From TrEMBL:
Protein name: Sulfhydryl oxidase
Family: Belongs to the quiescin-sulfhydryl oxidase (QSOX) family.
Cofactor(s) in the UniProt record: FAD
ERV/ALR sulfhydryl oxidase domain span: 370-477
Keywords annotated in UniProt: Disulfide bond, FAD, Flavoprotein, Glycoprotein, Membrane, Oxidoreductase, Signal, Transmembrane, Transmembrane helix
GO cellular component: extracellular space; Golgi membrane
Job description of the protein: Catalyzes the oxidation of sulfhydryl groups in peptide and protein thiols to disulfides with the reduction of oxygen to hydrogen peroxide.
Keyword Lipid biosynthesis annotated: no
Gene (UniProt): QSOX2
MF terms (GO), sorted A to Z: flavin-dependent sulfhydryl oxidase activity; protein disulfide isomerase activity
Enzyme class: oxidoreductase
Superkingdom of origin: Eukaryota
Reactions performed catalytically: 2 R'C(R)SH + O2 = R'C(R)S-S(R)CR' + H2O2
Length: 520
């Protein structure tokens, strides 16, 4: 529309301010703010935008203590406010302390290219508040003393207490405190390696370390890890949950799990055929069954999906046999349209007569939710397609007729989701992602990694959403507990080691890791 290009969008985890919203947002606020005043025509600002977005992503969970924002001084409606705030060069970075008065024009600081140093600056700004001024939800960032911490040892409590013992110049403890800001069920404290009496009692000599006090009074000790490892460990403790999936829903979740299907313990490092079979059961008997006839593109998508599963499904003969028969039947039909009832008849009756059938009920194991309505089908759909991408890599000749197509599994998945997946909004998001990047997938390895990466993007978007199961909070996957070597840190920023991730996915979703059991 002739205006300057926008460098930031609503999708980015930051606040886009305007002339009218700057002051009401950053002054008298219960949180501190870091604002980048930029100009969308300035080349340096364009280059810097990726750093700023990465920073916003990195400290996304700190938002109860500090907000990250941008304001585009090249937008006509923002000319006056940029003048009022004396913005002469772009980008200019200013921070506003919590509860700052309306007259405050912010304090200028020099922003670094290193996310780690901006993070440290944020921590310094937060610590620079007096006790009364501190952002409402920001816990103390100062170290605790032995006298304050030692009485907690051996005590029963309704939460975990994580004591991070670190060297005085380390920021890890404060970063982990802020990473856990939105989580309940755990309190994080830091203590210093110079506190001899604490070290002697806790028997700690390696830094940083976490001394973790469990609610039942016992303790565990985790040594020398990076910020991401510590945060991930604490967030995934049983009974720790993201505050936005409220305490009420946590209670309901636990109560419901007792009154509905009995809970089955399962091993998170395994994949269960029960989930894969339940996915197919739900697809064939529920999701597809809402279409009374299949014709045109729908029929083609259905046929390609059934054929794909028949060739790649690793979970056992009866299902493969059923899918093969269904696929042969569909391929042999000269019809342009089929009533879905005919498919159901085949699945339900004919197959049963010949002793081949698909489990007739939903039995979630790895995909069970803490209450009805959570997890289940969408979880199993992801699982099924991860398994199929890995299986395609393990048996590349299974799909002979698709030679030359770099991502046949993803193409079928994309068309299935677009045509049949009941969650429309999910389908729209997935289609946008596929349209923008699927053509970059050139081989089977990239096919596995594309789906993993896409799934993680959805996890990040949904983290803390109401649909999140409090017992299975959305987080980057695999966690450090599942795959330590998948995680690295460079200049204080978390990085995936993609080779290790690929190896892990091949193992995790591979045929040998499939468990036929219905519980642990
Ligand atoms: P899920 O995200 O379903 O994951 C299932 C299991 O897969 C996990 O338990 C874990 O073992 C494993 N896993 C997790 N992450 C990865 C990864 N990156 N790579 C490999 N394995 C992994 N819901 C919405 O509200 N909005 C959406 O836009 C949306 N889009 C969706 C798009 C698709 C294609 C699908 C299949 C689902 C979508 N959903 C969406 C549903 C949502 O992603 C979850 O499936 C649902 O909330 C259930 O979550 P869950 O806790 O069972 O974990």
């Amino acid at each position: 529309q002739g205006g300057p290009a926008r460098l930031y969008s609503e999708e980015d985890p930051l606040v886009i301010l305007s002339g009218g919203s700057l002051k009401p947002t950053v002054t008298n606020s219960s949180t501190a703010w870091l604002v980048q005043f930029y100009s969308s025509w300035c080349g340096h600002c364009i280059q810097y935008s990726s750093t700023w977005k990465a920073l916003a992503q990195d400290v996304r969970d700190w938002q109860d203590a500090v907000g990250i924002a941008v304001l585009d001084c090249a937008q006509e409606g923002n000319f006056d406010i940029c003048k009022e705030f004396s913005i002469k060069f772009y980008p200019t970075f200013k921070y506003f302390r919590a509860h700052s008065p309306p007259s405050d024009k912010g304090t200028i600081y020099r922003a670094d290219r290193e996310i780690q140093s901006i993070r440290q600056l944020i921590i310094n700004v937060l610590q620079n508040h007096t006790k009364l001024e501190r952002p409402q939800h920001c816990p103390p960032l100062e170290p605790y003393s032995a006298a304050e911490l030692l009485p907690l040892l051996g005590q029963m409590s309704d939460h975990y207490t994580a004591i991070i013992v670190e060297e005085p110049d380390s920021f890890v403890g404060r970063e982990v405190i802020l990473d856990l800001l939105q989580f309940s069920g755990v309190q994080v404290r830091r203590a210093l390696s110079s506190d001899r009496s604490l070290l002697d009692t806790l028997d700690i000599s390696v830094f940083p370390s976490i001394y973790l006090l469990h609610p039942n009074g016992t303790h565990a000790h985790v040594e020398k890890r990076l910020r991401f490892f510590f945060s991930s460990l604490l967030r995934t403790l049983p009974g720790v949950w993201h505050r936005s999936s409220s305490a009420a829903s946590q209670t309901v979740a636990l109560q419901d799990s007792q009154t509905s299907q009995p809970w089955k313990d399962f091993d998170r490092s395994k994949v269960y055929t029960a989930d894969l079979e339940s996915a197919l059961h739900y697809m064939l008997r529920v999701e597809l069954a809402t279409h009374s006839t299949l014709q045109g593109e729908e029929l083609k998508v259905f046929r390609d999906f059934v054929t794909l599963v028949s060739k790649l499904y690793p979970g056992g003969d009866p299902v493969v046999k059923l899918m093969e028969t269904l696929s042969d039947w569909l391929l042999s039909l000269p019809l342009q349209q089929i009533p879905y009832q005919a498919v159901l008849d085949l699945v339900n009756n004919k197959m049963r007569i010949s002793g081949v059938f698909l489990g007739a009920e939903l039995r979630w194991v790895g995909c069970q939710g803490s209450r009805p309505g959570l997890r289940g089908y969408p979880c199993s759909l992801w699982t099924l397609f991860h398994v199929l991408t890995v299986q395609h890599d393990a048996t590349p000749t299974s799909l002979d007729n698709t030679e030359g197509e770099a991502a046949p599994v993803l193409q079928v998945m994309r068309r299935y989701i677009r045509t049949f997946f009941g969650c429309e909004e999910c389908g729209r998001h997935f289609e946008t992602a596929a349209a923008s990047s699927l053509e970059q997938v050139k081989n089977r390895d990239q096919q596995i990694l594309w789906l993993w990466n896409q799934h993680n993007r959805v996890n990040t978007r949904l983290s803390g959403a109401l649909s999140d199961d409090p017992l299975f909070p959305k987080a980057p996957w695999p966690s450090p507990a599942l795959c330590p070597s998948c995680h690295e840190e460079k200049n204080g920023v978390h990085l995936w080691n993609q080779n290790q991730v690929l190896g892990f996915l091949r193992h995790h979703y591979g045929a040998s890791n499939l468990s036929p059991r219905y519980s642990l």
